[in-house]
């Protein structure tokens, strides 16, 4: 089953991702479409989520699995809903988003917003390395910096 890209506007986003539990369920469904496997025994049956932690206990081996492990959300105390909104804002703004503006929009500390942006940018850079461009490429209206300071760009 191939999942296709679905463009979302702001209203679609906020009607889809309404709570922390919805975001966590979406993350699990995207990472493991057939169900989250236990990392130790491979079983897909888990006890209900622990209340204060993003962890599920396997019913057969009692090992704890965390759906955020190995992602940019790993070992963060920031709610997933806040992360999802931040990712949406970064993807929505074509000019780039500063940590100061993100901290104001999300209502978090500047350091938290800076760390979130850092993780997102690192993940995007890591993903971009896998893409290669082949064939005939055409670039339209490209501006580069001036060769000497004080002259016009062109």
Tally of contiguous helical segments: 5
Order of helices and strands: HHEEHHH
What's the total count of β strands?
A: 2
Helix content: 25-40%
Radius of gyration: 20 Å
Distance between the termini: 48 Å
Walk me through this protein's architecture.
The protein has 154 residues and is mostly helical. The chain folds into 2 domains: 86 residues; 33 residues. It contains 5 helices and 2 strands. The protein has a two-stranded antiparallel sheet with strand order 1-2. Helix 4 crosses helix 5. The mean pLDDT is 86.
Name its key features.
154 residues, two-stranded antiparallel ribbon, 3% strand
Helix-strand layout with pairing:
Blueprint: H1 10-16, H2 20-31, E1 56-57, E2 64-65, H3 80-92, H4 99-106, H5 110-128
Antiparallel strand pairs: 1-2
Question: In a few lines, what is going on in this structure?
Answer:
This protein is 38% helix and 3% strand. The chain is mainly α and 154 residues long. It folds into two domains: 86 residues; 33 residues.
